Amino acid sequence: MKRKLTCLLTALLALVLVLTGCSGKSGVKVPKELEPYVIPWEKNVVEEAKADGKIHYYFMSGEGGEYDGGDVRQKWGDSCLIVFPDGTTMLMDSGTEPYGKVLAVNLKKLGVEKLDYFVLSHPHSDHAYGVAQGGALNEIALGEVFYNGVYNADWGDVKAVENFCSSKGATATILRKGDVVTIGGVTIEVLWPQSEVVGQTLDSTPDINNASLVMRFDYGEHSSLFTGDLYLKGEREIIAEQGEKLDVDLLEMCHHGDDTSNHKGFADAVTPEIAVATGYVYVRNQTYAGYTAHGGKVLLDMQDGYIHVAAGSDGVMAAETSRQRENNPYAQYEYKG
């Protein structure tokens, strides 16, 4: 249930933030080849969260994307930095291997010296390789890792997650439906996957995606939902089992906003005030319309760049984007796949 009206900051505010917050005072060095892709804001997000008592989300999968005409989703992938009201940091997925270098710079520009938690929603390269092979954690310290306990048969080392954690001295913890974690005054409830998939080695992309961690965050009157790469089958199953728990204020759209997912029934169950798609993919008009039908806003990195959402315990959200969207949003999202 939505309790407060979302306040979307204007592009003018975003421009002011770029001019004032990205002055480079902290001296973060950005390699020239990465300059077109890194986050524009330079700040200390840990201290910011402690000062304002809000939960902050930085959706980031790499700016730009003019990348040799390939599948840019496979180039950038999915990633979101969450900063809790007490300054605890959590990275939700990490994008692809090429994005790992961008991710490391982004975290430094945001003043993050340690990731207290890393969450891997499911074992696919566009969610895992930014830290596992892209090198981001060669420069950023790591605390605890949460994952779904599902193995990808296509990975040469099916236990790569556990072995990676061991190499970093990090604790690896499996999460499944029904688990509850409290961090910095925020309650996180795991809504998916079902326990029976834990420990299985899967060789089907739909099966792996439908075993994604789905996590609901509650902070006072504010709520958010992260869905990994759930496909249509997974969406229907979780609606049947979780019902009203899917109704949140902020949504990370399933599978990058792709049409494998995000059917009308799911949009009707979630009714988000803000729905975000990352991965630099085209979002179909009907998907876009499904999420805006309830009065919400849709933000997409393809059109809006990096996306920052802050929410207080009173349920009020504010959003800023790194660039201004141009033209009619519906005209921009004719499906190209």
**Overall average pLDDT:** 86
CATH class membership = Alpha Beta
User: How many separate domains?
Assistant: 1
Overall morphology: globular
Give the low-confidence spans. Answer: 3-25, 66-70, 328-337
How many beta-strand elements? 18
Helix tally equals 11
Strand order of the largest sheet: 1-18-17-2-3-4-5-6-8
The fraction of residues in strands falls at 15-25%
The appropriate CATH architecture is 4-Layer Sandwich
CATH topology: Metallo-beta-lactamase, Chain A
Assign the CATH superfamily. Answer: Ribonuclease Z/Hydroxyacylglutathione hydrolase-like
Report the helical percentage. 25-40%
Content-based structural category = alpha/beta
Query: If you compute it from the alpha carbons, what radius of gyration comes out, rounded to the nearest whole angstrom?
Result: 18 Å
What kind of sheet is the major sheet? 9 strands, mixed
Order of helices and strands: EHHEHEEHEHEEHEEEEHEEHEHEHEHEE
Distance between the termini: 34 Å
Please identify the oligomeric state.
Answer: single chain
